[in-house]
Amino acid sequence: MRTSGGGVLAFPHVTPFTAVVMAAGQGTRMRSSTPKVLHELCGRPMVAWPVLAAQEAGAQRVVVVTSPGVDLDGALPEGATTAVQPEPNGTGGAVEAAMPQVGADDVVVVLSGDVPLIASSAIHEVVAAHREARAAATVVTTELGDPAGYGRVVRTQDGTFDRIVETKREGDATSDELAIREINTGIYVFEASALQDALPQLTTNNAQQELYLPQALTVLKDRGVAVHQVDDPAVVLGVNDRVQLAEVRAIAQRRILEEHMRNGVTVVDPASTYVDATVTLGQDTRLEPQTALHGATTVGAGAHVGPQVTAVDSTIEDGATVRVAWLEQAHVGPRATVGPFAFLRPNAHLHEGAKAGTFVEIKNSEIGAGSKVPHLSYIGDATVGPGSNLGAATITANYDSKRKAKNRTTLGAGVKTGVDTTLVAPVTLHDRAYTAAGSVISEDVPEGALGIARERQQNIEGYADRP
Ligand code: UD1
Ligand code: CA
Asked: Would residue 260 show up in a list of annotated catalytic residues for this protein?
């Protein structure tokens, strides 16, 4: 069984809705040339998280609101579309920009691109609560010990919704209102028709001179506004700077690892293990400390990875062992072994039971089933057949620096190179060929032959006694 961070429709029976993810603005507190919502969080851009949560919860359409000139293509999961908010005139303006893509009878869920930990289950629940209340709008709230900076939920005497007051800038809230601990999470559900009616009524008559989306709730009060209070603080954990990004990352990472552990993966030290949301892991695989698995990496069942392994976009098959190694777009076949201290670069492919041992670098090469490259080797642009053994410090001289060209080295099955063999490509060692230790092999070695290419030894007698 394999597990991964998402992509499955978790609630097949939910009524479809349209999600609007507000993600415009640069996010100045990140102090970055990259827009805030494109910062990476466990292998995905931050904005992809709420989009995927919405899709998992059953969104039929997800519209991401972005600033002019910000290209979200490639950052968004399949199926999401974008809408450009011409100027950063507030959350009301953000939703307005998405409305041309919203159907007249849709249920609209509004999320924020910088609140990435919202769970699909939480979205599912608020949509259900909204339907049950038959409300025109539903706002998700929570109580915080420190509500500073959030919009406060003002209720009437009988406890029904009255309005939301903003507190980011002085002037919107009174000191009584500032004492309220129930805050607006920034997550809402609207009937599209109600939203359509309310948006043109928003004003900029407030401390930030922006269109506040929460004002739409005040406008819709007579048509029914429901309050859906939750007690999961993660739904509000927003990312405004890189300190908060690290806090959110730690929570997201913990969730990813826990899902894998529940599915049968041993994570010896979760605190020092980093697994992207995009990685798949097989059952009974064991991750040792200080291991980082990134991107499209997949690990099969019963594999042993770590300590100190970084794998990027790599495949590690069932029963393989990888210790103290760096892998990039590499492929480790079933029961193959790697490390300690190995570097597998793009298109290094170890077939079943093959070995890349200590201080070994392999690039763009096939290492045949059961073949071994045990010590101190550089193997580039080579094909090694099955059952071969490369002596310590066998090196491919694959680069012709004059022609700036890479040449291939081909080794057949059952080839044995002596220690310190240099293979000057292009060159072929046929099946069962041998090379003598210290040889510089620049010509092909026929099947079953021994290639010797070195100076004969000469002993100078009495050398030590010479004057
Ligand atoms: C907003 C709410 C506040 C709530 C808080 C919860 C308003 C006026 N206030 O405040 O009541 O407690 O969220 O986190 O809505 N965005 C745009 N275009 C804009 C402005 C913002 O797309 O013109 C996006 C941002 O990228 C962000 C989201 O909307 O993802 C929220 O905007 P932000 O400025 O962070 O609102 P808050 O001040 O946090
Ligand atoms: Ca915010």
From this structure: no
